[in-house]
């Protein structure tokens, strides 16, 4: 019997931007090993003020991440009794509580509940990426299906290689549905109807279709994918890490709530930044420059261009702690 392929993340530390090659073995699959290492990586970069962005790309020459390790999914499913929707909902709720407490986790990992717990932890990792001040960019050097696509959807930006590649959610062709967030994140990227049709059919997007639908942000020649992703990562990573986190939480989490609840999230994040030392210094800079020049800095084209390039409106005060 073939054993699950061991995978690992090859991290290239280039200072503020890390390049991470996802190595899922000969087939380029995403298994539990990669999920565990990704959790540790996200925790590390989220806590490190010196890391501003992470670029993920595939170690396989023509695949970003092929899809989940199917044996991983099948065996965890086989280890649990068949349940209906109510039973499944109870399992998922239990896994969420266990993952949050971590007290019972070692015990639960030895029970049929382990599959639900593993999925809960992966979702938590992706959500931490969504709420982090770090910019995550998927450099799709090739194709991505299933969990490979969901991994890309969980990133903030996606740059895809032009060519005979594809990205999508084929799970329905295996009698299941996306489980790594595809029904939710793809829907938020391209809209309900397009997402539903793509998931029901199981047919992936070509690079051109993905770009036209909004599933990826750019399509470039394959040999330029990583360089372009790093360029975008450096550009957006130059912004305030605290403000990036606040903006991402407002958009990712507040944007899927009711308008009133979403506005509450925005107000909360807004006030954390207005009251921050960094926000105060930059706003005081802005006012002092206005008084000194007689014009609003953002209505001076050269100043605005400098702000976009550097990540902050230039001024006299130190912003080294951004």
In short:
This protein has 322 residues and is of the alpha/beta class. The chain has helices spanning 32-47, 70-78, 85-101, 105-108, 114-130, 147-154, 182-190, 192-201, 207-213, 225-237, 241-252, 259-274, 277-293, 301-310, and strands spanning 8-14, 17-23, 53-58, 63-65, 135-140, 143-145, 157-161, 167-168, 218-220. The chain has a 6-stranded mixed beta sheet with strand order 1-2-3-5-7-9, sandwiched between helices. It has a 3-stranded parallel beta sheet with strand order 4-6-8.
Describe this structure in words.
This protein is an alpha/beta fold and 322 residues long. Helices cover 51% and strands 13% of the residues. The chain has helices at residues 32-47, 70-78, 85-101, 105-108, 114-130, 147-154, 182-190, 192-201, 207-213, 225-237, 241-252, 259-274, 277-293, 301-310; strands spanning 8-14, 17-23, 53-58, 63-65, 135-140, 143-145, 157-161, 167-168, 218-220. The strands form two sheets. A six-stranded mixed sheet has the order 1-2-3-5-7-9, sandwiched between helices. The longest helix is centred in the N-terminal third of the chain and has 17 residues, at 85-101. The chain is globular and about 65 Å long.
